[in-house]
Design brief:
single chain; 112 residues; mainly beta; Elongation Factor Tu (Ef-tu), domain 3; 1 helix; 11% helix; 62% strand; elongated
Protein backbone atom coordinates (compact mmCIF):
# COMPACT_ATOMS: atom_id res chain seq x y z
CA UNK A 1 0.00 0.00 0.00
CA UNK A 2 1.70 3.16 -1.16
CA UNK A 3 1.32 6.64 -2.55
CA UNK A 4 4.05 7.80 -4.94
CA UNK A 5 4.61 11.17 -6.57
CA UNK A 6 7.40 11.57 -9.12
CA UNK A 7 8.99 8.29 -7.91
CA UNK A 8 9.01 9.57 -4.30
CA UNK A 9 7.05 7.62 -1.72
CA UNK A 10 4.60 9.78 0.20
CA UNK A 11 3.27 9.01 3.67
CA UNK A 12 -0.31 7.82 3.81
CA UNK A 13 -2.54 10.92 3.80
CA UNK A 14 -4.86 11.77 6.67
CA UNK A 15 -7.61 12.35 4.09
CA UNK A 16 -7.90 11.82 0.33
CA UNK A 17 -10.57 13.05 -2.07
CA UNK A 18 -11.04 12.37 -5.76
CA UNK A 19 -13.09 14.99 -7.57
CA UNK A 20 -14.23 14.49 -11.19
CA UNK A 21 -13.69 17.31 -13.67
CA UNK A 22 -15.74 17.26 -16.87
CA UNK A 23 -14.01 18.61 -19.96
CA UNK A 24 -16.89 19.83 -22.13
CA UNK A 25 -18.05 22.44 -24.59
CA UNK A 26 -21.51 23.99 -24.78
CA UNK A 27 -22.87 24.00 -28.33
CA UNK A 28 -25.83 25.96 -29.73
CA UNK A 29 -27.14 24.72 -33.07
CA UNK A 30 -28.58 26.90 -35.86
CA UNK A 31 -32.07 25.91 -34.72
CA UNK A 32 -31.31 27.33 -31.24
CA UNK A 33 -31.05 24.04 -29.37
CA UNK A 34 -28.31 23.88 -26.77
CA UNK A 35 -26.36 20.82 -25.77
CA UNK A 36 -23.07 19.88 -24.15
CA UNK A 37 -20.36 17.94 -25.86
CA UNK A 38 -18.33 16.01 -23.26
CA UNK A 39 -14.76 15.50 -24.42
CA UNK A 40 -13.36 13.61 -21.45
CA UNK A 41 -13.38 13.28 -17.70
CA UNK A 42 -10.32 13.77 -15.56
CA UNK A 43 -9.80 13.88 -11.81
CA UNK A 44 -8.41 16.22 -9.19
CA UNK A 45 -6.93 14.50 -6.14
CA UNK A 46 -6.84 16.32 -2.81
CA UNK A 47 -4.44 14.84 -0.27
CA UNK A 48 -4.34 16.17 3.28
CA UNK A 49 -1.26 15.32 5.33
CA UNK A 50 -0.76 15.77 9.07
CA UNK A 51 2.48 16.07 11.03
CA UNK A 52 4.92 15.79 8.11
CA UNK A 53 8.63 16.00 8.86
CA UNK A 54 10.69 18.75 7.25
CA UNK A 55 12.37 16.23 4.93
CA UNK A 56 8.95 15.03 3.70
CA UNK A 57 7.83 18.63 3.13
CA UNK A 58 11.07 19.44 1.31
CA UNK A 59 10.53 16.48 -1.02
CA UNK A 60 6.99 17.64 -1.86
CA UNK A 61 8.04 21.28 -2.34
CA UNK A 62 10.89 20.25 -4.66
CA UNK A 63 8.43 18.30 -6.82
CA UNK A 64 6.09 21.33 -6.83
CA UNK A 65 8.93 23.67 -7.79
CA UNK A 66 9.70 21.61 -10.91
CA UNK A 67 6.51 23.14 -12.42
CA UNK A 68 5.89 20.18 -14.70
CA UNK A 69 3.62 17.17 -14.86
CA UNK A 70 4.78 14.23 -12.76
CA UNK A 71 3.66 10.62 -12.30
CA UNK A 72 1.26 9.87 -9.45
CA UNK A 73 0.18 6.46 -8.29
CA UNK A 74 -1.83 4.91 -5.50
CA UNK A 75 -1.61 1.23 -4.75
CA UNK A 76 -4.16 0.24 -2.10
CA UNK A 77 -6.23 -2.88 -1.57
CA UNK A 78 -9.38 -1.41 -3.17
CA UNK A 79 -7.94 1.55 -5.10
CA UNK A 80 -5.39 1.73 -7.88
CA UNK A 81 -4.44 4.98 -9.63
CA UNK A 82 -1.64 5.52 -12.15
CA UNK A 83 -1.66 8.88 -13.94
CA UNK A 84 0.24 12.12 -14.66
CA UNK A 85 -0.65 15.21 -12.62
CA UNK A 86 0.18 18.86 -12.08
CA UNK A 87 1.04 19.65 -8.45
CA UNK A 88 -0.28 22.54 -6.36
CA UNK A 89 0.25 23.10 -2.65
CA UNK A 90 -2.56 24.51 -0.50
CA UNK A 91 -2.51 25.46 3.14
CA UNK A 92 0.61 24.82 5.19
CA UNK A 93 0.26 24.87 8.96
CA UNK A 94 2.90 24.41 11.63
CA UNK A 95 1.64 22.58 14.71
CA UNK A 96 4.76 22.11 16.79
CA UNK A 97 7.31 24.59 17.97
CA UNK A 98 10.99 24.15 18.69
CA UNK A 99 13.66 22.37 16.71
CA UNK A 100 11.36 19.58 15.40
CA UNK A 101 8.78 21.46 13.32
CA UNK A 102 5.97 19.30 12.03
CA UNK A 103 3.77 20.56 9.24
CA UNK A 104 0.22 19.96 8.00
CA UNK A 105 -0.09 20.33 4.24
CA UNK A 106 -2.80 20.04 1.60
CA UNK A 107 -1.70 18.81 -1.82
CA UNK A 108 -3.81 19.34 -4.98
CA UNK A 109 -3.04 17.03 -7.89
CA UNK A 110 -4.88 17.61 -11.19
CA UNK A 111 -4.68 15.08 -14.00
CA UNK A 112 -3.07 16.28 -17.20
Amino acid sequence: MSYTLDSQTLPRPFRMERMPIQIMKSVTTFSGASRRDYVRQKYKYILEFKMLTQSQVTTIVNIYNSKQAVDFSISEDNLTVDTSVFVDIGNRQYNTKGDQYREDLILYLEEV
